């Protein structure tokens, strides 16, 4: 334990995977591979959209926003995760922990908002294709990206201050190798009702509403597609949504899994909770570039052309 001042510790102690401490050096390798795939794959998609004029379209602009949020999320967690698993360094300064907490939650919310805008893009493309070019102009896309970013940072701006007002004197040991709001507030020796209520409000009003409208957009898309007479045309329309559906599942299924484990798995081993949280943070940035590279021919061809230019 570290020495405490009146309100909060000078630093927190991060935790790897409880009970598997002896395996941390072996886990460092797969973690590095995951970060390499997440950073390299998403950076490649960003470069492809930037360099290929054929990808200068709304669908790919939104994809580049998704890749940017994945890169930012990976960079937000990378320093502390690799320090914990590779160098057995567990300390993180109190203010640095607050900053990391804010960034992780902000970029996670940003990704949820981008997935919602991508569902709207697919809705307009399939249900109202004649207005697609006029509805999703470059100006509207830029405003949408700015709105998603502003929503994330404005909504979560109070979190560091809500933590900082709490006297933390029970412990300074966190449950993960990164800083999260629920983990930090549990260490307080004061009433955390405001933190809990605000956290629930943020979860329902952003992630919950995003998921609801994504689901609604696909109900409308399904109704529109089923009205198409040609079987081939229906398959073609559905195929344009496959990558986005997989990205939504990669993001929301681990999130729902974490919520279920925390609510109903209180007697489960502690490492199960930690592993589920790690899956929620690490899997989407790794899977998204693989999904879009494999399922979107235009992205795949653009990446091949980039490698060809590098080779030349």
TrEMBL record:
GO terms for biological process: cellular response to lipid. It is found in: Cell membrane; Membrane. Transmembrane segments: none annotated. It comes from the Eukaryota. GO terms for molecular function: G protein-coupled receptor activity; olfactory receptor activity. InterPro entries: GPCR_Rhodpsn, GPCR_Rhodpsn_7TM, Olfact_rcpt, OR51/52/56-like. It is a multi-pass membrane protein. CDD domains: 7tmA_OR51-like. PROSITE patterns: G_PROTEIN_RECEP_F1_1 (PS00237), G_PROTEIN_RECEP_F1_2 (PS50262). This is Olfactory receptor. The lineage of its organism: Eukaryota, Metazoa, Chordata, Craniata, Vertebrata. The gene is LOC109675021.
